[in-house]
Amino acid sequence: MNRLLAGGLLLVASALAAPALAQTAKPTVVLVHGAFADSSSWNGVIAVLERDGYSVVAAPNPLRGVRADADVVSDLVKSIKGPVVLVGHSYGGSVISEAAEGASNVRALVYVAAFAPDTGETALGLTGKFPGSTLAPTLAPPVRLTNGGNDLYILQARFHDQFAADLPLAEARLMAAGQRPVAEAALGEASTAPAWKHIPSWFVYGDKDRNIPPVALKFMADRAQSRGTLVVKGASHVVMVSNAAAVAGLIEKAAAAAR
C-alpha cells in the first residue's frame, strides 16, 4: 500500500509540474535575413541565443517576392512545435509580417533595421517616404533574368560604406562578394497582411542606417506600438552583425514576453 501510495503521489506531482514546465519552455527563434545578405549575417546573434539556451533556425529567404518568400517562412514556422519568435532584417521584415499571419504559434515579432509595412505599402514606398536613404546610387546595373525580371546587387566597391560602414573593411568585402540579390519586383510588392497589428513587436536599428532612413524605422516602430525599441548609436544597416549581443538581447526580451 505504501508503494502504491508513493507511486500515486509521484504521478500527481509529475502531472502538476508538466504544465509549469511547458509554460517556461523557451520559444524557438526563427531568423529571416534581408536583401543583399544571407543567413550567415545572423551568426553572431545565433551564438548568443544558443549560449543562452534558445533553439534557433536561420530561415532561407529566396528574396523573390513578399508573398512567395512569406510562404517559404510560414511553412517552416508551421513545422516547429511550440511557440516561435519571428525575427526579420530589412526586407525580411516585410516577409515576417506576412508569414506570421495565420501562424498560431508565432508569439512575437522582432524587426531588425526592418520594414513593417501596412496593407498596400511596399519597401520602396516606405524608403522613399522619408529622406535619408542613399541606396539607389550604389546599386549595380540590374541583372536581367530569363523570366523578364531583374535582380539587384549593391556594387561591391560601395558595399562597405552603404551597407556595413561600422564593420571592418575586410569583413564587409566578404559580405559584398557573398551578397544575395533581391528581385526588383519584390521591393515593389505590396503587403497584404500586417501581422504586427495583432502580434506584439519589438524594434532595433542603428542611427547611421543608410539603406532605410532611421526616421522611417522610427515611424514604423511607433506605428506598430513597439513593446521595446532599441536605437544603437553609430550602427549601420547590419546592426545584427556589428552589435550582435544587443540585438540578441532584444530578441530574448521578446522571447521572455512570449512565454
TrEMBL record:
SUPFAM superfamilies: alpha/beta-Hydrolases. InterPro entries: AB_hydrolase_1, AB_hydrolase_fold, Sec-Metab_Biosynth_Hydrolase. Residues 29-248 form the AB hydrolase-1 domain. The keyword rRNA-binding does not apply. Keywords: Hydrolase, Signal. GO terms for molecular function: hydrolase activity. Residues 1-22 form the signal peptide. The keyword Nucleotidyltransferase does not apply. It comes from the Bacteria. This is Alpha/beta hydrolase. It comes from Sphingomonas alpina.
